[in-house]
Amino acid sequence: MSDPVSNPDPELTAESPAASSPEEQQLEALQAELAAAREQVLRANAEMQNVRRRAEQDVEKAHKFALERFAGELLPVVDNLERALAAIPVEETVNREGVELTLKSLLGALEKHGVSLIDPHGEHFNPEHHQAIAMLDAPHATPNSVVDVMQKGYSLNGRLLRPAMVAVAKASS
Fold it and tell me: What pLDDT is attached to residue 62?
């Protein structure tokens, strides 16, 4: 009697799903390779889309905030014009008008390029936009509200350029 394990029947082997010809094995290997290559292509395309999107966002931010340093350097000029305007007596209309017009045109140019004023007088103190430099007793003001603005703040396209320096009302004791 022959051993069934050592000498398999050729008819059983051909019908058996476990056994496959070299051509079938090669086909399966190529199909697996093709599936892996397709997945790599999909991943590479997704990565390229992400890189393209990030580059577009970086360019947009660069355009949006390119004036940040320049605008920041113009803010002291605005402050000085406001101080000059406060120092000119009301009777001196010619000098006062000249400084007012200069200040107005400078603020207009800044606003045209996305710089906006933060003047928080009377608002609730916001540490993201305000810098408290004093706490004052103000019986008629709500606690933690801005009662005085020492220096106005500015933002560029929603990004803070300079916080407003403010005095905040103390809570009543």
Answer: 83
